[in-house]
Each structure stands twice: as structure tokens, then as C-alpha cells.
Amino acid sequence: MKAMLAVFAALLWLTSFSHADEVRFASVELPPYAGEQLPGGGVTTSIVREAFRSQGIATRVNFYPWLRALALTQHPSAGISGFFPAYQCQPEEGLIASSQLGISVTGFAQRKSHPIEWQSLADLTPYRIGVVSGYVNEAEFDRWLNEGKLTSEPVNFDKNNIRKLLVGRVDAIVIDRFLLEYLFSSDPELAGRRDEVQFNSKPLNQRGLFVCFDDTPQGHELKRQLDSGLEAIDTLSIVEKYIQ
């Protein structure tokens, strides 16, 4: 009986969904992946919109603090169908994950003239490392920072870190690889100095980016539509256009 009711609910929702003007999502400020003031709302927002558009579905994205975005997704009365970008979607919180939108690679940017060499965290002890206050980088690395095992220089913004790196006040900075490329391509102050900096070949952390949907018949159908859309579009071209 429960299975029949679930199927009926899904069919009822799909009938109303086919006449809906748009599907609403919650997102958070995570440049350049998502942001209210970014072109297209950020690169993952652009990917989500294009994927749904390929399935004939319009979307609307509103930006909230992280916990608010999560709460809205879990309350159907809010009219929010999902949130992104998320590193993971917890089943115990009643969430399911889409196919992967992309990968966030966190690592070290360094001056080409003074590259750092490391294989373990202990190899980083001779270096002065720029970090952004409050960022979650990688669990063991963050623990070493908090315990004072590594020499760090905290700042409030990634751009400030890049400035310090360019003038040699730090040996390396922790940054998302795509964010590094985006800042050099979009910020006039930095654009002419891209050739001075490179991303270290050994990443610190890699995390997938997903859309989280509510674990309901509606959520599963939207996940199916998005996953089909992601297969139908060229996500790489969207990313490349974003950093040109």
C-alpha cells in the first residue's frame, strides 16, 4: 500500500510539474562556483541551469547562508527543490545527491621562481603558508595549523593571499585551483601577473560538487532530470568560457 501511495504521489507531482513555470533552488556564496553577483550566478549555477534547460525545465536560484539553504530544502512548504553546490548530501538528513557537477581541487599556489616541494605535511614546516581565515581546507592540514605545527599567515580574502604571494611575503597559499584561475582572469589588478604563479602539482584535497535533493518522489524525479541534462550538455565548455 505504501509503495502504491508513493507511486501515486510521484505521478500527481509530475503532472503538476509539467505545467510549472520553474523549479526553485537554494545556493550559497562560493565563488566562482556560485554567487549572487557572479556572471550567471557562478559556474555551477550556469551548469545546473543549462542541464535543466536541455530537459525543457526553467530554474530560479536564490542565495542564502549555508544552514538556511539546507533547511529550506528539507521543508517542502518552502518551495525549494534542492541546494548546491554541496560537497556531499547526507542520507541521514533525508538528502540524495545528483551526478557530479564538477570537482573542487584545493592545493598550493606558488611563485614559479620559488616552487615548494612536499609529499607529506612535515615537508611544509619550512614554509610560510597563506590561508584564508575560517576556510575548511583538509582535516589533517587544518589540525596541523591549529596545533601550530605549520607557519601560517591568515587573511580574510583569497585575493589578499595572492597579493602576498606575488610580493614574496608567503611561500605558498592554499586556494581552490579554479578560483585561482578565475581571479587571475577576472581581476584587472592580477590579470597581468598570471605567468608568475603556478598551482603545485600535488593537491591538498579534492571534493566533488553536487546538487542535494530531498529524498522524496519529487526529489528523485528532479535528480533524474538533472542527471540526464548533465549528460546532454558540454560542461567543460561552460567552465572554459567562465575563465576566458
UniProtKB/TrEMBL annotation:
The organism's place on the tree of life at top rank: Bacteria
Entry keyword set: Signal
Annotated signal sequence range: 1-20
The name this protein goes by in its record: ABC transporter
